Amino acid sequence: MTDKTYNVLFLCTHNSARSVLAEGLLNQMGAGRFKAYSAGSSPSGSVNPFALKTLRTLGCDTEGIRSKGWDEFAGPDAPKMDFIFTVCDNAAGEVCPIWPGHPAIAHWGFADPSLVQGDDATRLAAFAHTAQLITTRLRLFTSLPIETLDHMSLVTELRKLGGHTA
Asked: What is the CB-side half-sphere exposure of residue 76 using CA atoms within 13 A?
């Protein structure tokens, strides 16, 4: 086992819901082994309040979570990413920046809870459901023997997780 902390970037077009949920959840679950970030190709400029409420309900720290562009993580002064996951289908189809350090990249699509219509309880339930799906995938990810897998095997495993349904 290594003392290395793995940097993980979650990408979604607007960086307001799914990628934010994944960032908060992995930072809580990662126990210092993982440091999560999130960004978007066309950030909305604000985080969906239901995403923040969901994270807080699950005991996640939301301090510093904000909607930001992915260019923030593509520059020479940015943290070097070990893993990058797109969590929405739109972001998966976009031309991404060239990421320094050749991180392992995979697509883990989740339905957008912010598109759910209804009262606050219905919308909050949609965010809670998405958080549950993301948590399941993150548990599988954090249990991988990352240190013992070569890059190609690791990418294969990450892509398999993307096809995993709970």
From this structure: 0
Residue at token pair 């950030």: 43
SS3 content of the chain, % helix, strand, coil (to 5): 45, 15, 45
Interior CA angle at 134 toward 44 and 11, to 5°?
A: 35
Please say whether the beta carbons of 111 and 88 come within 8 A. no
Q: pLDDT tens track of the chain, all 166 residues?
A: 568 999 999 999 999 999 999 999 999 999 889 999 999 989 999 999 999 999 999 999 999 999 999 989 888 888 999 999 999 876 555 666 667 778 999 999 999 999 999 999 999 999 999 999 999 999 999 999 999 998 899 988 998 888 744 4
Q: Where are the alpha helices (DSSP H) in 5-146?
A: 18-29, 49-57, 89-93, 120-142
The bridge status of strand 83-86 relative to strand 6-11 is: parallel
Domains of the chain in start order, with CATH, are 6-151 (3.40.50.2300)
Instruction: Tell me the pTM.
Output: 0.91
β partners of residue 36: 8
